[in-house]
Every structure is written in structure tokens, then in C-alpha cells.
Inverse folding.
């Protein structure tokens, strides 16, 4: 005799959330038109210039330039990482992370350490050093101060964003 087959399907909220979160990432074109977005792109371009100007010299003979290289490369990589996060709106996918606080801490620490690195860079450039490297180191010092001012601006905007979130 033929059997009756009954199929029951159920849906859970976990499955619905999983399928919603696995969709493609969004792309925020407008972020690059904001002041923080423009500052971030400037930080990336000029930060790259800072460390390439130093990397093209014999900086390893002078420990001070090693510190400048560390700060410049470290924050260059992290800034590229954060630009990707903001451009793809990944921060909306991970609401558990306090992104305004992360941005404030990142930009604040970048400002302080880049300021120290720019001062170290500027104070280490003398005519007594190899004249071939002098121009590159002097230029890197100038651009390090420009990048520092960009991080100061982004720190300000991060503080305003953080402050508006904490007052709500």
C-alpha cells in the first residue's frame, strides 16, 4: 500500500539573518566626497610619499628614520584598511564594534605618533648627513607634517561623530 509523505518546513530567524548578511557588500561612493573621506585619501597618498621618500635612501643607518618608517608604513596600511571598511560600508555589517570610538582612537593615535615622527624626521635632517639623502629626508619631513595635519582633522571629525553618538 502507498505511504503518505508529509514534508514540513520551518524557517528560523538565524537562517534569515544569515542569508541577509551574506549578500554582497555595498559601495559608498559619497564617502570620498566628504571631508573625512578626502582627508583619508590625502593621508594615503601623502603617507605613501613620506615612506617612499625615506625608503629610497639609506635610512637604516640612522635609527630615527627607522621610527619614521615604522609610523608611516603602519598607519598607511591601517588607513587603507579603514578606507576599504568605510567604502564598502562593512561597519554596518558589524554593529557590535563601536566604530566611532575605534575611529577616534585610530585617528588620535595616528595624529600623536605622526606628530612625534614628523618632529623626529625634521630634527634628524642636517646638512652633515649624506647630501644625496638630504633632499629626500627634508621632503619626507615636510609631507609628514602635512599628513599629521590631515590626521588632526580626521581626529576632530571623529571626535564630533563620537560625541554626537554618546549624547544620544
Amino acid at each position: 500500500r502507498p505511504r503518505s509523505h508529509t514534508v514540513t518546513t520551518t524557517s528560523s530567524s538565524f537562517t534569515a539573518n544569515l542569508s541577509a548578511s551574506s549578500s554582497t557588500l555595498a559601495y559608498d561612493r559619497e564617502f570620498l566626497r566628504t571631508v573625512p573621506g578626502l582627508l583619508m585619501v590625502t593621508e594615503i597618498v601623502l603617507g605613501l610619499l613620506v615612506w617612499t621618500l625615506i625608503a629610497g635612501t639609506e635610512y637604516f643607518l640612522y635609527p630615527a628614520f627607522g621610527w619614521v618608517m615604522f609610523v608611516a608604513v603602519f598607519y598607511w596600511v591601517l588607513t587603507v584598511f579603514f578606507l576599504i571598511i568605510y567604502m564598502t560600508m562593512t561597519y554596518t555589517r558589524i554593529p557590535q564594534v563601536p566604530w566611532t570610538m575605534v575611529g577616534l582612537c585610530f585617528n588620535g593615535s595616528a595624529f600623536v605618533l605622526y606628530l612625534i615622527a614628523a618632529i623626529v624626521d625634521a630634527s634628524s635632517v642636517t646638512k652633515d648627513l649624506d647630501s644625496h639623502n638630504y633632499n629626500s629626508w627634508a621632503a619626507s619631513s615636510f609631507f609628514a607634517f602635512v599628513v599629521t595635519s590631515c590626521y588632526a582633522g580626521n581626529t576632530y571629525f571623529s571626535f564630533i561623530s563620537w560625541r554626537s553618538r554618546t549624547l544620544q
About this structure: The CA atoms of residues 82 and 103 lie 9 Å apart. Helices lie at 13-21, 35-55, 63-87, 99-124, 131-166. Residues 8-22 have pLDDT under 50 and may be disordered. Residues 26-95 form one domain.
